[in-house]
């Protein structure tokens, strides 16, 4: 049995309440007062595709360039009234400051256990800077293989996402258990022959009709039961 984990909602969570918010955004008054508001929402919808997680990229430098374009456009549309240097700083902070994501407390104990006991893969709709977050937390080295959506230019449940992580793990689908918080991604995994379990750490997670766990201890017990 090999475990394949999603990142968001499974290993990490948005430290400031939304995946869209970085530390510098929260600390900049002109930006902070718009977060969660209608003007912010409309502007993000108008330019969110600029830095979408299905855009093909390999490096943080590429991610930063796209975030600069995104924040420059947001600055015009909301508007925030920031200087070019200030919008550049928002982009740099978003990419390079791992504080925008928190790591669930049980990850430190269980990720090394999962790697030793099962083998561990990471499959996430995310950009290159997630690696910095996991390195900062001392967790990156526990993954035997990883696939980010920006590696392939596609989001789960696209079949290529599951195909790529199986290839990198050198595993057959039926040998793997995939944990994610979204039903569509779990269904996608099942369609590719993987076993799937929902991680519902937050009570607001919309539950599916399949197996559900709420933390890594329960995930380990479920994997043991399958074995």
Description:
The protein has 227 residues and is of the alpha/beta class. 45% of the residues lie in helices and 14% in strands. It has 11 helices and 8 strands. It has helices at residues 23-27, 29-32, 38-47, 60-77, 84-96, 107-117, 130-136, 149-152, 159-169, 183-191, 216-226, and strands spanning 2-5, 12-14, 101-103, 120-124, 145-148, 176-180, 195-199, 212-213. A 6-stranded parallel beta sheet has the order 5-4-1-6-7-8. β6, α10 (183-191) and β7 (195-199) form a beta-alpha-beta unit. α3 packs across α4 (60-77). The longest helix is centred in the N-terminal third of the chain and has 18 residues, at 60-77. It is elongated. The protein starts with a strand and ends with a helix. The relative contact order is 0.17. The mean pLDDT is 97.
């Amino acid at each position: 049995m090999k475990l394949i984990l999603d990142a968001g909602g499974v290993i990490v969570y948005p430290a400031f309440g939304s995946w869209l918010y970085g530390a510098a955004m929260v600390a900049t008054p002109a930006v902070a007062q718009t977060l969660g508001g209608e003007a912010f929402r409309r502007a993000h919808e108008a330019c969110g595709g600029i830095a979408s997680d299905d855009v093909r990229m390999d490096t943080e430098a590429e991610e930063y360039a796209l975030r600069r374009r995104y924040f420059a456009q947001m600055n015009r549309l909301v508007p925030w009234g920031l200087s070019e240097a200030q919008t550049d700083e928002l982009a740099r902070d978003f990419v390079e400051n791992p504080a925008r994501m928190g790591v669930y407390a049980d990850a430190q104990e269980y990720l090394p256990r999962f790697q030793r006991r099962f083998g561990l893969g990471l499959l996430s709709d995310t950009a290159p800077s997630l690696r910095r977050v996991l390195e900062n937390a001392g967790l990156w080295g526990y993954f035997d293989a990883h696939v980010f959506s920006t590696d392939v230019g596609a989001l789960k449940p696209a079949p290529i996402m599951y195909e790529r992580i199986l290839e990198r793990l050198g595993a057959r689908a039926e040998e793997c258990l995939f944990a994610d918080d979204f039903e569509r991604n779990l269904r996608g995994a099942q369609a590719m022959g993987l076993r799937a379990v929902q991680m519902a750490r937050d009570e607001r997670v919309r539950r599916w009709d399949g197996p559900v766990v709420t933390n890594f201890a329960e995930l380990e017990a479920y994997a043991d039961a399958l074995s």
